[in-house]
Design goal:
By secondary structure, this protein is mainly beta. It contains two helices and eight strands.
Length: 242
């Protein structure tokens, strides 16, 4: 079946990312700050996902030339030779008779990029002219995180060929990714800053946090942890990978 749109993945038209923040002075020594926003991960695994389906049926070959900018030991001019990308497949110019025996990194065509809802509220208190204390609550909830796995395997144990007990016995088990994962992060952040008249200063910080993440991996981001300062003082938030 060929998609009439001419592409595999569907567009996501609901990525709305509002952000808001405030700061309020309570007396001469105390400041209240808070912020909230939604940020989207537009880059994690984009190039990898595009390559995952390379070579899938009925595609039968590809030609990749690496390190073209590195001169060889015998020649100062980098060179590469054009090759037949179908020569190594062993099947000539014809694909395999069936697509059902491939093991590939497929993904849900309705997969969406992950996003994180982030918020914080804090109090900053000036103890004296050179010492301040910050106490902040920081939280986030991440949605549409990537969850992958090895699918179409046997659902029940038993003797004999396990593939005979798979949901689709005629299809080989394969990898499959979906954007169904969730994550959360909650933290108490305490910070003390001390400045001296001769230019020296020190900072002491402590964070007590809890992070639950069921859907991220080395290729996919938005774990949900971030700095409260990124929202309230720079006007934007940026996730920090763990």
């Amino acid at each position: 079946m060929v998609d009439p749109r001419g592409k595999i993945a569907h567009d996501t038209l609901t990525n709305f990312g509002p952000r808001i923040g405030f700061a309020y002075r309570l007396g001469n020594r105390t400041v209240l700050r808070g912020a909230a926003g939604i940020v989207y991960d537009n880059w994690a695994a984009v190039s990898q996902m595009a390559q995952n389906i390379e070579g899938a049926w009925p595609d039968i070959g590809q030609l990749i030339a690496n390190n073209l900018n590195q001169p060889s030991t015998t020649s100062a001019t980098p060179t590469t030779t054009s090759q037949d990308p179908f020569a190594g497949g062993g099947s000539g110019l014809f694909p395999a008779p069936t697509p059902f025996n491939q093991v590939q990194w497929f993904y849900d065509p309705h997969i969406k990029n992950p996003y994180s809802m982030q918020w914080n509220f804090g109090v900053q208190r000036e103890l004296n002219s050179s010492t301040t204390v910050d106490v902040n609550y920081v939280g986030s909830g991440s949605r549409r995180l990537n969850v992958g796995g090895y699918f179409n395997t046997a659902l029940t144990p038993g003797p004999g060929d396990p593939q005979a007990r798979a949901p689709f016995p005629y299809i080989a088990p394969t990898f499959y990714d979906r954007s169904i994962g969730n994550g959360s992060y909650h933290a108490l952040q305490v910070e003390v800053n001390k400045r001296y008249s001769n230019g020296l200063a020190y900072q002491v910080a402590y964070t007590y946090s809890k992070s639950i993440d069921e859907g991220s991996s080395g290729w996919f981001g938005v774990e949900g942890q971030f700095s409260h300062r990124s929202v309230q003082r720079q006007g934007k938030s940026r996730p920090i990978r763990v």
